[in-house]
Amino acid sequence: MTDKYIMTVGLEVHVELKTATKIFCSCPTSYGEKPNTVCCPICMGLPGTLPTLNRRVVEYAVKAGIATNCEISELSRNDRKNYFYPDLPKGYQISQYEIPLCRDGYIEIDSKDGKRRIRIQRIHIEEDAGKLIHEDKATLIDCNRCGVPLIEIVSMPDIRSSEEAKSYLKELRSIMLYIGVSDCKMNEGSLRCDVNISVKRPDDVKDGIRCEIKNINSFSFAAKAIEYEFLRQCRVLENGGAVIPETRGYDEKSGKTFCMRSKESADDYRYFPEPDLGVIEIDREYIDGIRETIPELPRSRRARYVSEYGLSASEAELICGDREWSDYFDKAANATKYRKTAANLMISELIPTTQKNDIISPECMADVATLLGSEKINSSVSKKLLKRKYFEEMPSDVVVSEGLEQINDRDHLAELIKKAVEKNPRMAEDVKSGKRNSEKAVVGACMASSGGRANPKLLSELIIELLH
Ligand code: ZN
Ligand code: MN
Questions:
Q1: How far, in Å, from the CA of 14 to the mean position of ligand 2?
Q2: What is the pLDDT of residue 10?
Q3: pLDDT tens per residue across span 95-123
């Protein structure tokens, strides 16, 4: 049934900005404080108070806009979005409506149809609302989140599947982390997403009626909600019904979406220019200044690692999954021509087990990669070298001073094999009779007797040659 329909999905992503203070007052944005301890008359919207726009919020939003290829408005303004909900003591949210700070951007994602460009309609700044805590017989209100700065990133309805939605969200999150405007902690709600979804038949010109699924806080929930909602809407149409425009919720336990209310339209919010704030005026120079602070973004780094350094796509993705690791790798890659070896060492030895603040410098890591790549040391020595501290000397100096060079000399290796077999003649018998793993036992014995320095690959070759 579903193959008769296609889905059209657009995402609205709320990203909490990691400024020290809130958007219109000087309350800290710290998370996890006791309820109602980080709020003031301004963020609670008490009568007689006036908001002052936090300049850092504008800076971060512009940064996000540039990183997602948006046009930046030199002149924009704040608007009031009026609605009643108990977590919004002011009765309105200060947001941006007609003129957002950023518009007409895009990001690129990989999908099963190859590279796809998902357009971004707009990015605007706004304040977060408070939080409702539902207890047995009462609902409590915590205003700590009131006035925490957000950007809302609104995509065009360019997404065609739940996988694409997931890749888009992942890419967007990664960009925000790279430019340092948010920590994007989904479990703390600093990245949340609303899904707009409609279905239509392939030959329909117009999009179908859409529903919005609110406040999803994980990528896989977003994908599941889309799958569920697609199926639901297909069924409605298939049974001759019409989709009703609704705001829906997603229930994590059942994996189902449910109706919350009929969909509000922009008119319902009675948007009007925020009278307590002036226009936001920024100039080219300011925008260009911010442009210069943007690092190379993950997508471009991944491509570079694959095309220039010969890494596999998954290796590149692993390293680029974290900006600090990627910066580290870039430094190391400048110091060795054995870049793939360096990447492999990072992926197997450093990333899974090491604290970034207690780590060998990228230059020393590159030195280890060069030693390993040029077969001057074997991999077990390389692992030991990665765990050491270096002060004046480099790993290559330690290799010389402590005699850790790999033994590549065939005669020397043959001698090791001979001695191992003399000590334990059974091993030679086992190798001859083709017992599984018997060669490994000889390699192990030689590695032990050489203090871990023998070349294991050459050893295996020689063992077959000498003992078979
Ligand atoms: Zn405040
Ligand atoms: Mn919003």
A1: 6
A2: 98
A3: 999 999 999 999 999 988 889 999 999 99
Counting Cα atoms < 13 Å in the Cβ hemisphere of 265 gives: 2
Question: Which segments of 361-409 does DSSP mark as H helices, in order?
Answer: 362-373, 379-387, 395-401
DSSP character for 349? I
pLDDT of residue 172: 97
Cβ-Cβ contacts under 8 Å for 321 (sequence gap 6 or more): 174
Tokens of 388: 């050491």
| The predicted structure's pLDDT at residue 437 | 83
Rg of the chain on CA atoms, in Å:
30
Structure confidence at residue 57 (pLDDT): 98
Q: What pLDDT is attached to residue 355?
A: 81
**Would you say 367 and 396 are in contact if contact means Cβ atoms under 8 Å apart?**
yes
Closest ligand, as measured to the CA of 15: 2
Using one digit for the tens of pLDDT, what is the confidence trace for 207-222?
999 999 999 999 999 9
Cβ 420 vs Cβ 463: under 8 Å:
no
Cα distance from N-terminal residue to C-terminal residue, the chain: 63
Cα(7) to centroid(ligand 2), Å:
23
CB atoms within 10 A of CB 180: 14
Nearest ligand to the C-alpha atom of residue 128: 2
**How far apart, in whole angstroms, are the C-alpha atoms of residue 91 and residue 66?**
32
DSSP string, 36-73: TSS--TTTTT-TT------HHHHHHHHHHHHHTTPEEP
DSSP 114: E
Q: What is the pLDDT of residue 341?
A: 97
For helices 313-320 and 298-309, angle between their N-to-C axes, nearest 10 degrees: 140
Quote the ligand 2 centre to 306 CA distance (angstroms): 37
Which contacts (CB < 8 Å, 24+ apart) does range 360-365 have?
360/386, 360/387, 360/388, 360/389, 360/390, 361/390, 362/328, 362/329, 362/331, 362/332, 362/335, 363/331, 363/332, 363/335, 363/394, 364/390, 364/394, 364/395, 365/328, 365/332
Residue ranges, the chain, pLDDT below 70: none
pLDDT at 436: 75
| 252 dihedral zone (left: phi>0; alpha: psi -120 to 50; beta) | alpha
